[in-house]
Design goal:
Elements (H helix, E strand, L loop, with lengths): L12 H12 E7 L7 H8 L11 E4 L8 H9 L6 E7 L3 H8 L2 H4 L6 E6 L1 E4 L2 E4 L1 H10 L3 E4 L3 H14 L5 E5 L1 H6 L10 H9 L7 H16 L6 E4 L6 E5 L2 H11 L5 E6 L1 E2 L3 H7 L6 E8 L9 H13 L4 E8 L6 H7 L15 E10 L5 H10 L7 E8 L6 E9 L15 E6 L14 E10 L7 H4 L2 H9 L3 E5 L7 H16 L7 H10 L7 H11 L9 H4 L31 E3 L1 H9 L1 H4 L14 E10 L9 E7 L12 E5 L4 H11 L6 E5 L7 E5 H8 L8 H10 L3 H11 L4 H9 L5 H7 L7 H7 L6 E4 L10 E7 L2 E3 L5 E3 L1 H8 L5 E7 L13 E6 L4 H15 L7 E7 L2 H4 L3 H10 L4 E6 L9 H6 L2 H10 L3 E6 L4 H14 L7 H10 L3 E5 L1
Parallel strand pairs: 1-2, 1-3, 3-4, 4-8, 7-8, 10-11, 10-13, 13-14, 15-18, 18-19, 19-20, 32-33, 32-35, 33-34, 35-36
Antiparallel strand pairs: 5-6, 7-12, 9-11, 15-17, 16-17, 21-25, 22-23, 22-31, 23-28, 24-27, 24-31, 25-26, 29-30
Helix pairs in contact: 1-2, 1-7, 1-9, 7-10, 12-13, 15-18, 24-25, 26-27, 36-37, 37-38
Bound molecules: flavin-adenine dinucleotide.
Flavin-adenine dinucleotide binds next to strand 27, strand 28 and helix 31.
Amino acid sequence: MTKEVTSNNFAAVHKAIEQIVYTLSGRIFSYAEHVPLDRYLKQWYESGQKNGFAEQVEFHGVETRSGAAGFLLGSYTSAVSSSGVYSLLTASSCLPLLRPMLSYTHRLYSGSKPLVLHVAALSYEANEFHVDNASLLDFAYTSDFATISSFALEDAAHISLASTLAAKAGPVVHAYEYDTLTTTFVPNEASVSASKTVECFHSFVPAEGVTANAIAALEHVNKHFGTKYAPVEYYGPATATQVIVAFGSKELQKARALASRTSNVGVAAIRVFPVIEESFARVIPKTCKKLVVASQTKLTALDTHSTFFSVVFATAASALPKVQVVEARYSDVDGISESVLAAELDLSSELSAVSASSLVETTFRIWEEDSVESLANALALVHASRDVEQNVVYRTLYDNQLFLGLRVSNVQVSKSSAKLPGLTDEEPKADVTILTSEKIANHVRVLANVADRSLCIVYTAVNPADAAKKLPAVFVKDVVEKDIRLVFANPNEQTHALNLVLLAAYFVQLKRNGADSTSVPSLKKNFATLGWDADEFDAVVKDLEGQAEPVKLNPDVLKELQLPEDELPTSAKENSFEANTVKELEEEVLPQSGNLNTVAKQLIFKEAYGQQELPRPNAPAKICTVRVKSNKRLTPRDYNRNIFHIEFDIGESGLTYDIGEALGVYGVNNKANVEKFIADYGLKANEVIYVPSLTHPGNWESNTVFQALSHTLDIFGKPTKQFYQTMAEYAADPKEKRQLEVLISPAGAADLQRRSEVDMLTYADLLLEFKSAKMTAVDLARHVPVLKRREYSISSSQRKHKDAIHLLVVVVGWTDPMGRDRYGQCSHYLSQLQIGDTVCVAVKPSVMKLPDSPKKPIVMAGLGTGLAPFRAFLQYKEWQWSQGIASGDVILYLGSRTQREEYLYGEDWEAYHAAGLLTHIGQAFSRDQPYKIYIQDVMRSTKALLKKALIDEGGSFYLCGPTWPLPEITSVLEEVIQSSSSEPVDTRKVIEQWKEDRRFVIEVY
Ligand SMILES: Cc1cc2nc3c(=O)[nH]c(=O)nc-3n(C[C@H](O)[C@H](O)[C@H](O)COP(=O)(O)OP(=O)(O)OC[C@H]3O[C@@H](n4cnc5c(N)ncnc54)[C@H](O)[C@@H]3O)c2cc1C
């Protein structure tokens, strides 16, 4: 059978997922700052493409920081459109930051707005990406989200779709593994067209309850696409006595590879989590005596059961009480291995020799500079196009740190008719190694993990006669010692040199296996099928005959080799998913030191140096500089909370804003703290350092050390675990090194947590504590992350204050266990600003908008600084009044601790009330009486007023401030809705409708 091969066969799975997301979604929120999970979505959105319902799509790329999901939540509660879906894309490592907000989802959920989280099971630890299903399942389980998992490229589109259908009954996580999905070759994969997707979505009738609906969703997809997905899928003999229970593609791959080498082990793959008891009991063979649960935990939680194990254990205890359940536990950083599973299985005899690696005909490893076109795709295509039933898998990884960016691919070709489950190993021994430059071998020992007498093809201009002298010494040593057959491809002599390398790999490999030139015609046909120039084929093969002669290296060369002192790494690390983009900086990509004279020259001769002065060169958004006009504390000096009102003069900055919008503020670190750190750490405040610009590639930002520590680096922020690791690498004192290593190991997890959550140590604290891990200013610029901006609701309207912008801010503060007064970075910075000081800001759009008709009543509920946007609302209404535009009822509920200390903007409210613009003020000062009165209590006592405004007159409701009162306030509104009818009312549905109509808007943080 001839396979049809097109480049689509290798379509990245992410595209498959993104296609489903784009087709079905009305709004897409991408929290994928460091991982390219939204590449295609962005392209389609920017080109104005509509979704499958022929509607405009909203796409938001959102920074991932604490409370980040508030943006999604705000939009979710106030959306008008009912068609389409809410989709969120992120990696599992970001879920802890999104969790606080997303935990409100259930309360606000509406089946008419399905919410799907497409989560790549991915974390970054110890300089590398790892599969992280542990965080994902923890999040989903504790937040009560159903999880549906893709296992491979083949099912990614279908499962994305099924997850979206399932979300018609409740929020869903679609889990997938980034690496497996992007690289497995699937011939003739049936495409999932947009029209079929929409048809499948429309024709689905949700079942009652999340679990039943997840099953119904899979069945519906099966019916549409002829697939056989189930909540639990079983692979293996019907008489298995032991079953491995696994979640995730890597786990499944390893479990199935191991099971295939035994006669009595099966694999239960969990597709829907929490595990559905009946589905589980149905697939486990009656003969099964033992379940081995592949249980991934975070490295920091290796001492405890994983959520996955606990849930499987509980399910099995109820469904299969006689079956023993054991845990095969491993960390996300170590990853699953056959030996972890085998240790828990009762394997009476040796594992059968039919291992996955015996199915492999050839393993190719290609080392490429990441700036050249990838050979791996092409190589895999050539093999996949042969006239035999054969299977090809490949996996590409990017190491941005080696040789300014390397791409390493392992391509495995199976023996005739064999189907490979995936790569047989992370680092299989290569039969053919290809290097696109001999220089790569200066940075990594490319022949460390190859078969003896295997083939190595190097793309080089080095003359074969000079090979021993000109090639890297470690490489030469390996060639000689492993008796490698070394073949050179000369870039200058070939027009299609890269294709030649590719062809060489194939052709020489054929020869090695004793194949003769009769295989060549079919090879030629395959090249033509791929759209390559078949006419050149004969010429290339002729050249190849000459070149395929191995380069001879006399073993005596070993005696003269000058080997480097430091050992080279033997493999690449996956620390990126994309090529390194800062090539122009060549070896200079790291921050560097400079001096003030150079900077002075650059400033004076700007044009000659291409110099530009930017307020915050590293800020991604369009930013403006504004000047402080007034800064007034609103709470008494002796009160323990500092809440203040700050006004900025917009001046000539060109900044404009709308009511309800927020201001992003780029805070500056406290001057005294920066100076103290510079002195304590022994830095030179005026030393100049150049940092490669993130926003203007190819350019440098010059800063003095003082500037960098004040404006750019989050030196007083919370250190990441990665930073502890970096410190350990720097530590010269073995005791300190050991101490740091323990802190990042499982044994130090509790200690590390205490440092972070109780002591709340900063980067500066750590640097001063571990003195031997001394960093230069340049090192700090490399390793300490950049400060993030903070957002504040604008409390003024530009209709009233044309040239000003107002904020209401509470200073975040606490005393740490060392007795030091500590403050939130930005709120404290703002509180200290003096009149005339300048601040860098950017306006951020918001969902807080007034109803189109000014006559419609508005009901506002604000807690603490949550009152800010309502002052802007009233100022806007005041302007409307002045224009003769009549207003409907304006009702304000405000909540804070005490009236004496925290009656925020009290004078404004009373003035508006006296003028008749604000028709009602409901005040809840929780601590002003012996018992607590909260905002919801005050609202409850004025239900008639609420009914008139919201139900009789169709007004809008707004809530801003902290999240905690949201459920209670929603309950009051439900009571109001019910009170308007003598019949039982589906109050949640009414609230849903209000949200649809943008009559129920929240902004919580
Ligand atoms: C849309 C929106 C509107 C907002 N509107 C307002 C508003 O009108 N008024 C207002 O006051 N706020 C508002 N906020 C909140 C505001 O953006 C900030 O989050 C808030 O001011 C705190 O920022 P900070 O820099 O002062 O504190 P941060 O430095 O960010 O500290 C915040 C918390 O992080 C923790 N932390 C800090 N350092 C460490 C450490 N080294 N180790 C361990 N933990 C640490 C502490 O728990 C601390 O309380 C709004 C937020 C959003 C999203």
